[in-house]
Amino acid sequence: MYQIVKREQLSPGVVRMAVHAPRVAKKALPGQFIILRVTENGERIPLTISDYDREAGTVTIVFQEVGRTTKLLGAMQEGEYLPTFVGPLGKPSHLEGIKRAAVIGGGLGTAIAYPQAKALFEAGAHVDVIAGFRSKDLIILEDELKKAATNVYITTDDGSNGRKGFVTDVLRNLLEKGERYDEVIAIGPLPMMKFVSQLTKEYGIRTTVSMNPVMIDGTGMCGGCRLTVGGETKFACVDGPDFDGHLVDFDEAMRRNAMYRQQEREADCRLLSKEAE
Amino acid sequence: MPNMQPHKTPMPEQEPSVRSGNFREVALGYTEEQALNEAARCLNCKNMPCVSGCPVNVRIPEFIQKIAQKDYAGAAAIIKTTNSLPAICGRVCPQESQCESKCVRGIKGEPVAIGRLERFAADYAMEHGAQAEEAIQRNGRKVAIIGSGPAGLTCAGDLARMGYDVHIFEALHTPGGVLSYGIPEFRLPKELVRREIATVEALGVTIETNVVVGRSITVDELFQEGYEAVFIGSGAGLPSFMHIPGENLNGVYSANEFLTRINLMKAYDYPNADTPITVGESVAVVGGGNVAMDAARCAKRLGAKNVTIVYRRSEAEMPARAEEVHHAKEEGIAFAMLTNPVEVLGEDGWVKGLKCVKMELGEPDASGRRRPVEVPGSEHVLDVQTVIIAIGNTPNPLLRTTTPNLAVNKKGGIVVDEETGATSIPGVFAGGDAVTGAATVILAMGAGKRAAKGIDAYIRSK
Asked: Cβ–Cβ contacts within 10 Å for residue A22, how many?
């Protein structure tokens, strides 16, 4: 059993939790993920590791309360236990040798982009962080990011924080002004990673995206997390989750992620009717 | 006088029309009377040909004699001296190609129903409390086992009996490996798996779930933690696909994923369990092994009206057990033999058909089976909404990619010494699907057993 030792509401619907899982904390590296379950009959869901404390034996996750499992998880309190919290899974990000990077986070993806920015910045790289949110009240991790980057650009879809536009607008602006990067790391919703990859392709900048498909076991057994990358079938759990953004078939990935939308809606209804009881 | 009845005593089963709508066990097991009748068919041969057909060398005539003497607990105790998982083996072993294939009674008529008798004795012991095993003399030496499937459990059980402190690391949240995530409830009830594993734990074996060796901890670190030997029984790996267009459409499952959702995650009990599964009105299952049969029968039980097994050779070449094929047919599964898929057709991203060609059998290939050859102009479309690919898997990649110096073959299987299970790394042993690729429960158990001896010899010689 894995105890929730800290719980914070980062923004409406977004929760950060530190979970006591010493084996995971000891080995975690940026880019890797964990799989957790909330109840004995619960699903296994993958969440990317946002931070870790090897001494305290804790691993931090950030998640949005969107589906049944994340809503149940969000309702859990400090001191409660998760029956499964296994990892670290997937390959760590390749950050070696990167001197100039743009790290781009979309919404919740910012929490996952954060450890990459931090690792690069601590290794002495020039790091521009671009983080996009729907509106001002959804902005997360602004203070943390400022400590982990050379420049931080935060933009909102509705302009409520004073800068209106998508992360791609900010990136295009920087590139047009002549900024150049060894690598762009983009983490967030599939459409955002797709458009960032399209933009960086124009400029010939190597781009890494972090894929988060539906998974069951997460250890290379079920094959549910398959993606088409450069025309080949790859498994996000063992070949990824990081992939070359210029090679990923995002349209297929978006379609596959919607496979259980109907069931997700039904589960949501059941959760709501339970709350109403 | 032995009972000279030429046929096996039949075992009661749920009616096909009833069981195809539920996940309860199909075969119901012998009554005491049926077991006694069947046990009396054994000739108690001196040279025991049946024992040589068993990968774990169960002392077959001896336990059957105990049943005949109505000492059922004694029968179970004899089985347990060489087999840690008898209730499981009695259900899922392919006895027809192992022990029963060597039975003298099979020369004229049917062999003794050894599997059914094993199941009877094991179930009896489970029901009535097993005979206490002799106290084990602990030697205080630690062995780590990776994976709690049939290979790992057998290796663990044997080592524990020899006195070792055995700790099993399991990646999933439930122990059992393929016994838990792969084989369906209606062939192998999970409660029974749980109880059988408990008997291994009762020998002093500890099981830690949610640890992925290779990621959470490496093999090197296990030695640093004081383990003197490591057994790798990490099992099946990535599912194989056909590499035909449309395989990533929504509605295409690997059998691994389909069965894991149903068995491990209990999607058949959705929404009481949270994991969903989608099954169309018509389902095609590609492949001819036991896993294909399991997937097809699960699809039927989840409400699919038409389920078709699509296999590129003929029924004679199908690797599935005859009993499983028979059960599937009884439950209304259709068989499209000599049929090979060439494309999964889609609409709006979802499966809407499976384009196939007919095959005919040509010359024998490397496997000795006649090679299927495409019949020109035989293209046709099966109207299905779900396609399940059950054509096998490659060994789990995690350990070989995170354990330097672990020698593997071209297919990714760990290279071992057949006799001892020793790998290229001193102190590291392996067995089961991680070595062979997809095979059977009992072969994995046999490998676990040999490795236990190999590990014991290795540690003693240190």
From this structure: 15
Here the CATH number for the domain that contains residue A109 is 3.40.50.80
- B398:A255 CB<8 A: no
How many Å apart are CA B9 and CA B89, to the nearest integer? Answer: 19
Domain of A11, CATH number, reads 2.40.30.10
β-partners of residue A81 are A3
Task: Answer yes or no: do A218 and A191 share one domain.
Answer: yes
| pLDDT tens digits along A118-135 | 999 999 999 999 999 999
Q: Is A182 contained in some domain?
A: yes
> Which B residues 17-56 touch A at CB under 8 Å?
none
Chain A with chain B: Cβ pairs closer than 8 A? 117
User: What ipTM describes this predicted complex?
Assistant: 0.89
In a domain, A272, yes or no: no
The residue whose two tokens read 């330097």 is: B404
Q: Are residues A154 and A240 in the same domain?
A: yes
Report CB contact under 8 Å: B215, A226. no
Question: Can you tell me the mean pLDDT for B45-50?
Answer: 94
Global pTM value? 0.91
User: A26 is in which domain, residue-wise?
Assistant: 2-89
Nearest to A219 among B171, B217, B250 (CB): B171
With residue B107 as reference, give the H or E element that holds it.
Answer: none
Average pLDDT of chain B? Answer: 93
Query: CA-CA distance, B106 to B99, in Å (whole number)?
Result: 11
Kindly determine whether residue A41 and residue B250, on different chains, have CB atoms separated by under 8 Å. Answer: no
Cα angle B225, B146, B134 (rounded to 5 degrees) comes to 85
Number of domains in chain A: 2
- Looking at the fold, whether A127 and A217 belong to one and the same domain comes out as yes
CB contact under 8 A, A27 and B215: yes
Query: Which of the four pLDDT bands, split at 50, 70 and 90, describes residue A271?
Result: low
Q: What is the mean pLDDT of residues A250-270?
A: 82
pLDDT digits (tens, 9 = 90+) for B266-286: 888 888 888 888 899 999 999
For residue B312, what is the enclosing H or E element? none
Contact B9, B290 (CB under 8 A): no
Residues A47, A131 within the same domain: no
Q: Same domain for A28 and A61?
A: yes
Q: Same domain for A113 and A249?
A: yes
Categorize the per-residue pLDDT at A235 as very low, low, confident or very high, splitting at 50, 70 and 90: very high
